[in-house]
Amino acid sequence: MVYFGINCYFTNTIFPIFTENYLLTKNKVMLRFTLFLLIITMAATSFAQSFAVKTQKDKNGYEYKTVEGDPYGVREYQLKNGLKVYLSENKDKPEISTMIAVKAGSTYDPKETTGLAHYLEHLMFKGTSEIGTVNWEEEKILLDEISNLFEKHKATNDPEEKKKIYAEIDSLSTVAANYAAPSEYDKMVSSIGAKGTNAFTSNEKTVYVNTIPSNQIDKWMTVESERFSELVLRLFHTELETVYEEFNSGQSSDNRQAYNKFNSLMFPTHPYGQQTTLGKAEHLKNPSMVNIHNYWNKYYVANNMAIIMSGDLDYDETIQKIDKYFGGLRKDDKLSHPTLSKEKPITKPLTAEVFGPEAEFLQLGFRIGGVDDKDNLIAELISMILYNGQAGLIDIDLMKQQRVLQAYVYTDFKKDYGEFILKATALKGQKLEDVKDLLLAELDKIKKGEFEDWLPEAIINDEKLSRLRKIEYNYYIYDILNAFTLDIPWKDEVSKLDLMEKITKQQIMDYANKTFKDNYVVVYKRKGVNENIVKVDKPKITPLEIDRTKESEFLKKFKEIPETRLKPEFVDFKKLIKTEELGNIEFNYIHNKNNELSSLYFILDMGDFNIKELSIAMNYFEYVGTKDMSADDLAKEYYKLGVYTGVRAGEERTYVYVSGLKKNFAKAFSLFIDNIKNAKADNESFKKYIESLKKRRANRKLSKWYIAYNEQKYAKYGKNNPQRYALTNKELDQLDPEKMVGLINHILDYKHYILYYGPEEYDQAKAMVKNTYSPAKNLQKIPDPVKFEELDNDAKVYFTNYDMVQSSVTLISKDQKFNPEIMPYISMFNEFYGAGMASIVFQELRESKGLVYSAYAYINMPNDKNKSHYLMAALNTQPDKMKDALAAMFGILNKMPDAKAQFEASRKAALIKIESKRLTKSDPFWIYKWYQKLGIDYDINEMIYNKIKTMTYEDFQAFFKKNIAEKTFNIVVIGNEKDVDFEVLKNYGELIKLDLDDLFSY
Hints:
Helix content is 41%, strand content 18%. The chain is α+β, with helices and mostly antiparallel strands. Among the domains are: 573-772, Cytochrome Bc1 Complex, Chain A, domain 1 (2-Layer Sandwich); 796-999, Cytochrome Bc1 Complex, Chain A, domain 1 (2-Layer Sandwich), CATH 3.30.830.10. The protein has a ten-stranded mixed sheet with strand order 1-2-8-9-7-10-6-5-4-3, with helices on both faces. It is globular, with a radius of gyration of 28 Å.
């Protein structure tokens, strides 16, 4: 997975179930955190304090540093070997978020083998001389021979000679694989209930991630300390196939192409612009195991690494254990990072274009100082004055006024340089050059001081809210990560808000005038054919035979390590959620005992399926004002109060919500209710809204993700499907703005219910609602929804053409209506067989055969008792591999391999995950409402847990034979018709080519 130069090894969470807390991700805090992991956010709890650094010793004599006023309670240690350790206690759940970070990324790749750091990240999952081998002495001899052959392969330019050498590599690799015990790292971390096992590489860091149950610290440290003690490049050439797939996938990403072009102009000599994380095609074709070992030897040393842990831990015990397990990692007293070239100043606008099939956009930016530049605080503040998701200049002037389709601003700081970046998409008929001028005009307002004096202070208050949310979800671990990898003293992170508060308006203006001149880079991403695609063709490899019964001695001993088990906690929803009638409205209450965050939701079990234009009306809400306040004024007022508000309609449910700090919550709630009831139509803004909506729709038809999603709905329901149930553009033009605003005004006249989650005691919360909100005496009945008929499986292959390098394939098979009795088996299938790095599907298609970049299979849990379970399987691969990849996928879906030991390990892992699972915050309410739609009113995890405890391998085999094997599938494919072999697809069913008019109703 790739976002802005960060490359991830693999994500083992497939289609996570989002609770309604996802609504809050619309706000600036979560958007910045999920979309821009590189942004450094603020952290402070109080002002006018010293933020003194204290050095102390714990009861066992370990010295650590803390910072006065640190809201995260971070303790910073350094072991004798130089290993940095950052610990933060958060007792919300019995789990710990972990990161092992190395200060080394693509910036330090050798120039002749770019992409090396990223490839190394992949190979760190392959084991050591202890993990992943059954005969290291014999295996090592073969791996050394393979390494020598790769050097020969790299040294020759003769294509025929390269093929000959690679054939030798392939032959030796097949023999070496006989000594490999595959996926042992994945099996071990899975067996302890680890979640989110992953890794990512960027410019100056490589980071390895897990979330573990808090009682599994010792076993996690056992395997990780071994993993980082030694590098073994096992199963090298099949993993190289995966890297090829990731590179080729990146060629189909317009965002990535624009990002790379932008940085190449911004940094014409520095590796930031000249060495992409994925590397150059010619380097990937000529890998060097020697160079990878040299890189690992240089940078993967204790004094260049950190362990970061946040969660349910004990400081004193945890640092003792880290010292025990990691204190022996080697250090290098001569460690150094290269001094890289200094860039000349940019003295005039630098412009470039890239082309691709997706929607057009532009990226404009300025080179600014690296992390040591103290003025970066001003740059960050300016970015938020321009864009904060609510009341920034761009939010108000461009977004609220609908002068562009979308725009945002962010800063990205690296060690040597930073970037101040503005991105935007255009309205229909609007030139990207005109959008650029609009963005620069907003920057000019900063130079002239044309922003309101209250805005910087409001930004500081908003960052307090951001800090609370990061604590709630453990997101602040990324702040710690950035501090370590960029050599930022933790004190500077903690004191940022205090320092930012002292920045004056004049300083902001001075910085803007000094920094933002005609010294920018702009890349226009235009719709068209990308003539610069460079594809890495696969070499000929022999698929490796995986023997799942093989185990290293390390794994055998690992299994014998004593461990405690957590006692599972199952939710008594009726006890946890306090519910009573508030007039004719159901009022639900969950107490927030942790902080001052408050949220109030009005929920209606209706959406577009009930009223076809409902989401059109609700999404217009942010552009309307009242008789007393304009939409701009309302946005500013909410931002001043530190709250987020919204009205959102989906297909089957609508939410009216307000969220923020307790201090101003009652006032904001009152304003919000008035905002809804007295919203006024504005013909001009509504016309602009409809035009922008049509442009968004047009952009969706250019997105392979939207196309593939709609194609899946077509396969499930046919042409009459939920994604096509939408007003046509002609119908949009005929909408009456008065009627649309009337839907907003009277949305709470329909039957609904309320959830309050916050720090107020029950009686106070209920009184606050009653004092502000009076429901209608006779609530309107919710209109009956439109129904969509799920089609039977009939072996059809649906294909949609799209200009892309890889092809995306999804297998879909309808199963029975929701049945709670099969949920334990579904959980085991998803854990053991289909999803995650230790799964059968992943091992067969990626680890063994190198046929795909990603592959998974899972059975879903529907959101309604009248809907069906679906068996879904998916893979992303090059078109020339599709035949083999599909054959392999059907092979493992039709015949279950003998994997009893793996099943038992997965069964234990599934139990451990349930044992450490806790529903916190407002999540129990949303889960309970989902369960009610399924016809159950209890925590289904209890039944699943008890059934898995007694489930045998034979039980699962019987389930597999009945519910998985020999099923009929409909297949959905999106790819380039010039590359896809349709004769291969015809072997799996009737081939039906779909165009955009089949998939979209507008």
